[in-house]
Amino acid sequence: MKNKLVEMIKENQNSENDEEKQDNEIPELTWLVFSLNEDFYAIEASMSKEILRNLDIYPLPFVPSFVKGVVNRHGEPYSVVDLSLFLEKEKQETSLFIVLNLPDSKFCIQITDVMDFHTAPEDSVIKLEEVQDASFYNGTIDYAGKNVPILNAAKIYEKIRVNIENFR
Asked: For the segment 130-141, what is each residue's pLDDT rounded down to a tens digit?
């Protein structure tokens, strides 16, 4: 009986230690890592609603050059932005899109390729300080030995919306 009691006490201590370890663990985040031509970028996985492939883009007149047009997503028009052009880089030739999970928007970004869903501890994000257009970025993560910028999808969407409204 005494051995049984000792075993129960040890089990209880072990489970308390496991709970303490869980309380002290750093939360992990998941990012969708993708490419725009040769450059890698990431967004929080929760910001991606769907990945679409091989849809026709229907051009729109009188919009900035980075707005490629609209695609038909389940019978609804979604605006397409070539994120590479928006970031003032080289135009992409692709029919791959990430539908962004933003409230009250029908918006997707054109990308070159999906690389991975990458999970890492929250404290592995390197915050950016005083970088030009830092408002478009939440920091960087290490992916495959590269520092990959994490895009702030909400800020990018807002900037694009303002650019379209003010385009003449």
From this structure: 444 567 888 899
Q: Is the pTM of this model over 0.85?
A: no
Q: In Å, how far are 35, 103, 131 from 107, measured between CA atoms?
A: 18, 10, 26
- Number of Cα atoms under 13 Å in the Cβ half of residue 10: 6
What pLDDT, on the 0 to 100 scale, is given for residue 9?
56
Measure the CA dihedral 14/20/21/24, to 10°: 180
155, with CB counted inside 10 A (0-12, 13-18, 19+), is: middle
Distance CA 125, CA 149 (A): 10
Give the residue among 88, 96, 100, 102 at the shortest CA–CA distance from 115. Answer: 96
Supply the pLDDT for residue 130: 45
- Amino acid in the structure at residue 68: K
Residues 164, 105: contact at Cβ < 8 Å?
no
Which tokens is 68 given? 């490629």
Q: Are strands 107-111 and 76-82 parallel, antiparallel or unpaired?
A: parallel
